Amino acid sequence: MATAELAFDDLLDIDALRASCKTIAEAGCGNMLETRSKLLPILKKASAEAREQARLKLFEDGSGLNCANRISWIQDQLISVIFDFARTHVYPKDANGLAVAAVGGYGRGTLAPGSDIDLLFLLPQKAGPAMHKAVEFVLYLLWDVGFKVGHATRTVEECIRLSTTDMTIRTAILETRHICGDEALVTELQRRFDQEVTTGTAPEFIAAKLAERDERHRKAGDSRYLVEPNVKEGKGGLRDLQTLFWIAKYNYHVRDTGELVRLGVLSRHEWRLFQKADDFLWAVRCHMHYLTGKPEERLYFDIQPEIAKSLGYQARPGLSAVERFMKHYFLVAKDVGDLTRIFAAALEDQQAKAAPGIGGMIGRFANRPRKIPGASEFIDDRGRIALADPGVFKKDPMSIMRLFHVADLNGLEFHPDALKAVTRSLSLINNEFRESEEANRLFLSILTSRRDPGFILRRMNEAGVLGRFMPEFGKIVSMMQFNMYHHYTVDEHLIRTLEVLSEIDKGKAEEIHPLANKIMPEIEDRQTLYVAVLLHDIAKGRQEDHSIAGAKVARKLCPRLGLSAKQTEMVAWLIDQHLLMSMVAQTRDLHDRKTITDFAEKVQSLDRLKMLLVLTICDIRAVGPGVWNGWKGQLLRTLYYETELLLSGGFSQVSRKERAKHAAEQLSQALEGWSQKDQRTYTKLHYEPYLLSVDLEDQIRHAHFIRQTDKSGQALATMVRTHQFHAITEITVLSPDHPRLLSIIAGACAAAGANIADAQIFTTSDGRALDTILINREFPIDEDETRRAATIGKMIEDVLSGRKRLPEVIATRTKGKKRNKTFPVQPDVRISNALSNKFTVIEVECLDRIGLLAEITAVLSDLSLDIHSARITTFGEKVIDTFYVTDLVGQKVTNENRQVNIANRLKPVMTEQPDELKDNMPSGIIAPPRAAAVPKKARA
């Protein structure tokens, strides 16, 4: 402790603090409250100034462990001063024999700025009431200063008894450290704890800590590659390092993890990794606490840039400063995972070997490692592949790749010693190894395995083999993308994508992906598809577009893997176009013939179409939980079927007019039981776009809906339908037509908290609008979702009828919500007349916020543009909204000046929240107080 004081005594003038406290004691105080009130400002000032010094020194030396040690030391001094005051001046006879000890994390001599203080007040066997009052005096002062204190007041005997039955108490006492008071009492506790609690109970403790770790990981997301990690509790975080220390201390009776090198448990290199990881994670945690002013443990997006700045990260070509910081974080988390996994599993294995055999001789033989047929360099050690000879990799480096191949063939887990040997042999994977025909053949076999290729590749990645064997993959290991869309690092995303492909390949995804499940057996070249899936994001983080750069990587890498020239070109094409199908399906009108013909021209063959569909599904599924839904699946199926029809030569050559006439006849015939007059009336309501793009089943539903509305004499009405499989809810609105109708509906949905996914907009021949709005589903049970949709429908009706004002309901929704400024999405407006034969396509890309769609559509209405359809796509914090528009006489917008004006009017809305725009929004459309709108023609 003396060394620590010499290192830290510039943080706090202890002698001056004690002198100030002594002055108060000598002045005398009337009562306990008055004494505490006089001590309080002195202690608060000393604590604040010392902690500020610790903060400044963190910025000077950058060491997180030093910062945690400094704060712990400061806390020790404050507690010692308070305790000494109580023992000397308040309870001079009654506090002797009492000891104050730090436990838990504080017991290790580390404290984060916002951490709780865990204290153990050790009492002698015969402790009087006054001793308890002394404890209260210390605690009250600590609470008054503002510390959160977890405490226990026990005798040594009570500590020993409780620790035998409670694993949490046992873990806390394991790290007991004397602060002040009777040190002999703390020493006795430590001695008895080692003798009476830890002896012979290591297997029990290790099992409990590993189970606790697994449950903690499950709660924190069960992946060390979540892009908003929990620095303390998450996988690869500080608690994992602490678990390692607890187990080491309990099992080996060491006070310092550095002793594990001497014991041969960790190599010197691994010990340095331990130290670096511990220091880095403590630095991140301390900066988080200082930045947020609270004990924040999750590294949220909005604080990541500030932490990166505090730690001195700078941007580099292809990677921002925050992305470089987070890549370092995930590399450290990977190191922590390697250390804790190897160490904990080795201990677990050691304990299993020490356990007596089951059934005598039979048990001994049952636990004996077995030979693996055809793989003499490896053995099967109770379901885990192990090395028959520790020097096998030095003798034959190719055995590194064979280890994973044999594990896959035999369905084996990996013995921790084998993985440790792999990690320590990575230097053997050189250019000769990479170019080896055998290594590439084995790797391709692992990659395309029909068993569990994702599991094997994840183990290869964790051991560092994947990045060494494919340096291109090594560049994206632990790389994050700073956005809300991607939930995992790039390498984890690629492995998860492969796992989804394997699931589809095994026929286990029929319920989620019926089309992919059907066409997967038709894909003869599985190798090409698997390679493309693994490599599709291989070039992330480069200055060049990652799809183009990825195709170049594939052309270089695929021949090495043993793929033919034809296969290589297919992989390159799939990587180059891997975003195409997703973007077309989600941002284009799939009922527009030009969308399909343009897409088909790029795809060109059914083989490409099938592979691209499966790759697209795997890619979206692996982005993160909740990103995939049935609606996206339906969009992809629609695009696939329409394109397949065109590529196979089956696209109808019948004229558009003839097809619309036939659709009208089908609708008329389907309205069974209706009078001929009603059949004619309700069939003639619809124009060609409606008849050609809406399914007959929906046309029939709409006809009944419209007729019922007419009979009831309603000016407007809504109808809802839920689609559980598609995870989408449909709200159909029948209303008098109005230039701002979509804007008002969008605003009403925003006010009700509904996210619009798509909008189909039609005008009937009698001047009404029949609009179908598709919103993302919120509740899993249909009854709950139907009630929610009905509430949203009622909100739409209230706004359209003028019973509620749109600016007010949107203001209510956004009240108290700050604008997201963490992700600076550059607003962009693209206007094209080449994407549709009939419409001008306006695509806007910007940062998402409540009410955005309502404001954009209001601007389009102000510009006298008629919106025919809209595709609303959200990628995390970013939206890409696409509108198919014409002018009010049904023509494309071709004038360049007008196009520039459209873009100029939209951009302010995309960057700000213009109050004047909201104020000008109409309150309703039933007899609105405005000049007569230009009558709209068919939205054709």
TrEMBL record:
Q: Which UniProt keywords apply?
A: Hydrolase, Magnesium, Multifunctional enzyme, Nucleotidyltransferase, Repeat, Transferase
InterPro entries per record: ACT-like_dom_sf, ACT_dom, HD/PDEase_dom, HD_domain, NT_sf, PII_UdlTrfase/GS_AdlTrfase, Polymerase_NTP_transf_dom, UTase/UR
Q: Coiled-coil stretches, from where to where?
A: none
Q: Anything known on activity regulation?
A: Uridylyltransferase (UTase) activity is inhibited by glutamine, while glutamine activates uridylyl-removing (UR) activity.
Which residue windows does the record flag with biased composition (Low complexity)? 927-940
A molecular function annotated in GO for this UniProt entry is:
[protein-PII] uridylyltransferase activity
Q: Might you give the EC number(s) for this enzyme?
A: 2.7.7.59, 3.1.4.-
Q: Per the record, which residues fall in region Uridylyltransferase? A: 1-373
- Requisite cofactors: Mg(2+)
Where does the HD domain start and stop, copy by copy? 490-612
Q: Does the keyword Isomerase apply?
A: no
Q: Where in the numbering of this chain does the ACT domain appear?
A: 730-811, 841-920
Q: Which PROSITE patterns match?
A: ACT (PS51671), HD (PS51831)
Which reactions fall under this protein's catalytic activity?
A: [protein-PII]-uridylyl-L-tyrosine + H2O = [protein-PII]-L-tyrosine + UMP + H(+); [protein-PII]-L-tyrosine + UTP = [protein-PII]-uridylyl-L-tyrosine + diphosphate
Location of the region described as Disordered in the Swiss-Prot/TrEMBL record: 917-940
Note on domains (UniProt) = Has four distinct domains: an N-terminal nucleotidyltransferase (NT) domain responsible for UTase activity, a central HD domain that encodes UR activity, and two C-terminal ACT domains that seem to have a role in glutamine sensing.
Q: Which family does it belong to?
A: Belongs to the GlnD family.
Function description: Modifies, by uridylylation and deuridylylation, the PII regulatory proteins (GlnB and homologs), in response to the nitrogen status of the cell that GlnD senses through the glutamine level. Under low glutamine levels, catalyzes the conversion of the PII proteins and UTP to PII-UMP and PPi, while under higher glutamine levels, GlnD hydrolyzes PII-UMP to PII and UMP (deuridylylation). Thus, controls uridylylation state and activity of the PII proteins, and plays an important role in the regulation of nitrogen metabolism.
What name does UniProt use for this protein? Bifunctional uridylyltransferase/uridylyl-removing enzyme
